[in-house]
Amino acid sequence: MIKTLKILGIIALALILGYIISSFQILAVGGIIGVISGIGFLYLMFRYDKFSLYTVLILSFLLPILGRYAPSTIPFGLSIDVILVLGILVLFIKDYKNLDLKKLKNPVFLLMTVWMLYIVLQIFNPLAYSFEAWFYSMRGIGLYQFLIFILLYLTFDSKKDLKPFVYTWVALSVLGAFWGIKQHVFGVSAVEQRWLDEGGAVTHMLFGKLRIFSYYYDAGTFGAAMGQISLICGILMISPYFTKKTRIIMGVLALLFFYSLMISGTRGALAVPAVGGVLYLILTKNLRILIPGLVVIALAFSFLKFTKIGQSNYEINRLRTSLDPNNASLNTRVVNRERLTVYLEGKPFGGGLGTTGSWGNRFSPGTWLADFEPDGLYTRIRAETGIIGRNLYVGIWLVILGLGIRLVLRAKESKNKVIAMAFIAGYAGILMANYGNAVMSQFPVSTTTFFSLFFVFALLKEKDQAEATEDLN
Questions:
Q1: How much is the average pLDDT of 348-370?
Q2: Contact 355, 367 (CB under 8 A)
Q3: 3-state secondary structure string, 180-232?
Q4: Rounded CA gap, 365 and 427, in Å?
C-alpha cells in the first residue's frame, strides 16, 4: 500500500510539474531550478556551519564575471547580503544553545561594531538624500565586514580552516593572473570589449594601452589583489618552516602575481608590496634579513625614482610616474581633495552615504558630491561621513594593525608567526593602497583581507602556537 502511494505521489508530482512547465515554459523551468537550488543551498547551510563563509569567499572572486557575462537585470551583488544574513540566522536557529558568543568579545569585532553603529547613525544625517542610497553604499564599507567577522569568530577554526582558505585564495588568484595575462597577450573578449565601450575605456585605455583588469571589477582592484597575494607568497617563500618544494612553488607564484600587478598599470598597487614588505622586514627583528631587504627596496626605489632605465616599457614607465611629484594625475587628486575640504566646511558628518561616485549619480544626480570623483577610499569616507567618520574609520583600522603587530612581536618563532606576519604585512599594504583606490571596499580584496585578519589573531592566540595549524606544505 505504502509503495503504491509513493508511486502515485511521484506520478502526481510529475504531472503537476509537466503542467507548470507546459503552461509557463522557460519561466517555470527557471523557477523550479531556483526553488530546488534554494532548498539545496539551505540544506548545506544547516549541514555545514562554514558553508556560507566559503561561498562568500568564492563568490567575491566570481561576482565580477557574473556581472559582465550574465544578464544585468540579475542583482548578483545582493546575493552576498542574503548569504551572510541567512548564514547567521541558520547558525543561531540550529546552534543557539551551543554558540559561544564570548568569542565576539574581542577587539576586532568590537571595533567593527563601533563603526557599524556610526554607519547606522548616518541614516539621520540631514544632508543625506535617501535611505536607498544609504543602504546600497553602506554594504561595502560597513555591513559586509560586520557580518563576515560574526561568522568568522563563531564558526572558523584556525586549525582546520587556514589551509582551505589559503588554497582557495591562491587558486582563484592564479586564475585571475592567467586571465589577465591572456588579456595582455591576446586581448579582451567580446563581452569585456562591450564593458570597455560602455565606459570602462575611460579609465582602462590610457595612451592607447589597456590597463589589465582580468576578471576583477577594475584594474585598480586587480593590481592591489595581485600585490597582496604576491607579497604573502614572497614572505612564505623565504620562511625556513616550509619544505624546499613549497618554497619554490611560493616563489614562482610570487613572481607570477607581481608580474600581474605590473601589467595592471595600477600605480597605487605598488604600495602593497612596498609598504607591506618594509613592515615585514621590521617585524623580523633580524638584521641579516632586515638590512639586505631594505637595500633591495632602496635599489628598487632608486631605479624608479632616479633613473630612466626601461623607460620605453609601458609597465615600468607607468609605475615610475607614481613617484613623480609633478604627475598631473597626482596634482589633480590634491586639488580635488582641497576642493572637498572647502565643501565640507561646517559639515562634520559629511554629505551622507551614497552621495559620491556611481551611487551619487544614481540617487542624487547633478549634486556637487555626485560629480566629485573621490578616487581613494579615505577620500570617499570623508566626503560621505565627514572628518569625524574618516578619522574614526582610519583610526579603527590602524588600531587593528597595531594590535596585530603587537601580537606578532610577542609571539614565539613558529610557522604560525610567519603566516601571521605575511597576512599583517599584506593588510598594511592594502591600507596604504586605499589612499589612491577604494580597494578594501571592493571584492575580492575586502574578503581576503577580513579573512586573513581573522587568522592573524586566531593563530597567535592559540595556547600552543607551534601546533595550532595544519601544515601548508
A1: 82
A2: yes
A3: HHHHHHHCCCHHHHHHHHHHHHHHHEECCEECCCCCCCCHHHHHHHHHHHHHH
A4: 35
Is 408 a member of any domain?
A: yes
Please say whether the beta carbons of 379 and 337 come within 8 A. yes
50 falls within a domain: no
Percent of the chain whose predicted confidence (pLDDT) is above 90: 26
Name the residue range of residue 291's domain. 111-467
Confidence at residue 20, expressed as pLDDT on a 0 to 100 scale: 46
DSSP class of residue 212 equals: P
Contact by Cβ (8 Å): 313, 86: no
Contact in structure between 49 and 95 (CB atoms under 8 Å):
yes
Name the more confident of 8 and 156.
Answer: 156
Domain count, the chain: 1
Burial class (CB in 10 A: 0-12, 13-18, 19+), 467: exposed
Residues 6+ apart with CB under 8 A from 48: none
Mean per-residue pLDDT for 357-366? 79
Instruction: Examine residue 91 and state whether it is found in any structural domain, yes or no.
Output: no
163 is a domain residue: yes
